[in-house]
Amino acid sequence: FFLGFLQGKVALMSAKSMHQLHIFIFVLAVFHVTYCVITMGLGRLKMKKWKKWESQTNSLEYQFAIDPSRFRFTHQTSFVKRHLGSFSSTPGLRWIVAFFRQFFGSVTKVDYLTMRQGFINAHLSQNSKFDFHKYIKRSLEDDFKVVVGISLPLWFVGILVLFLDIHGLGTLIWISFVPLIIVLLVGTKLEMVIMQMAQEIQDRATVIQGAPVVEPSNKYFWFNRPDWVLFFIHLTLFHNAFQMAHFVWTMATPGLKKCFHENIWLSIVEVIVGISLQVLCSYITFPLYALVTQMGSNMKKTIFEEQTMKALMNWRKKAMEKKKVRDADAFLAQMSVDFATPASSRSASPVHLLQDHRARSDDPPSPITVASPPAPEEDIYPVPAAAASRQLLDDPPDRRWMASSSADIADSDFSFSAQR
């Protein structure tokens, strides 16, 4: 029956094709991890000079440059002059200037120190000795955990690329230029963010006091989301690794070379574009992203060092545990107060001030009787009246006098007549 049911049917993927798919996924994983490591290594190599700039913030020259007692025209500051020159001020040419600037001096010393000062003024105290360079390195390491992974949308992009590979169209060749366009667009946008911050400094005031201060904000980024820049970089690295893995896999698999590489020169162009893209993204775009995205409205959790973060998390955990213990103790104390018998005392109520008062009424005063004290409503173990009377007779005279006075007060009529 089962064989009859399968008559005239073929499997979607044969066992051999499944084996080839497993090989391709393995090659893709190797290339993706390798590309991520190269990106991290070249990015940190580019940021080595930033460490030197960070050390110069402790010099007297830098302290004099940011001295609040100094007044300068805004258009004379180095940061504004660099980003708002003759061509940069023209709206139509700003994008062209930003496009070419990412290749030649994408991040200068003036840019680094200005954005560093803006970050400190926005999130820390102005005189803070904060190491901005170490903070950026920790942020990159945290972003590396995201980039090295492969999310579901990226797998969808990879499957879509394979389905679009139609014979005769050369889709894989043209799609290989898409990551390059994305990286160039991201780099241009990051340079535009720096220009916009310089423009806001000039529009804010004609004369500045001390160093020019940028104001971090999410409004500079696409959709007010600085993390979208990381997503595009992640997509670019994955797509580039996908293209290189596909090239190596098809070249090494017998029978696929002639199918996918009819024109070997186009395949070589694809490889050259992939290598150039990797260098551009690793050495230019990724370090630029690491610096400019710190100008968002919120600072990242890597503001604290790893050990400090662990200490804060442990402190928070212990504080929550202590709070739970205090809440439990307070609840038990409240319960004990509610169920405890209240102690009677003469000073607890002003009723004893009326014990010598005689009621002004026509009724004769009620005789003094010895009554047992009523049991409180909250007492779950009430004392019988007879036992209370015997206890009262056994008490000393002074305590019996207090009980008698209380009984007299309880049975007396405290109504007052209006006659004088």
Describe the model.
The structure is a single chain. The protein is built from 17 helices and two strands. With 420 residues, the protein is mainly α. It has two domains: 294 residues, no CATH class; 62 residues, no CATH class. It has a two-stranded antiparallel ribbon with strand order 1-2. Helix 2 packs across helix 14. The chain starts with a helix and ends in a 9-residue tail after the last helix. The relative contact order is 0.10. The C terminus is likely disordered.
What structural class do the secondary elements suggest? mainly alpha
Oligomer: single chain
Task: List unreliable stretches of 5+ residues.
Answer: 343-349, 356-393, 397-420
Please provide the ordered H/E string of secondary-structure elements. Answer: HHHHEHHHHHHHEHHHHHH
Got a strand count?
2
In what order do the strands lie side by side in the largest sheet? 1-2
SS summary, helix count = 17
What is the straight-line distance between the termini? 116 Å
Average pLDDT, to the nearest integer? 76
Apparent shape: flat
Percent range for helical residues? 55-70%
Domain tally: 2
Main beta sheet: strand number and arrangement?
2 strands, antiparallel
Provide the β-strand percentage band.
Answer: under 5%
Q: What's the alpha carbon Rg, rounded to whole Å?
A: 41 Å
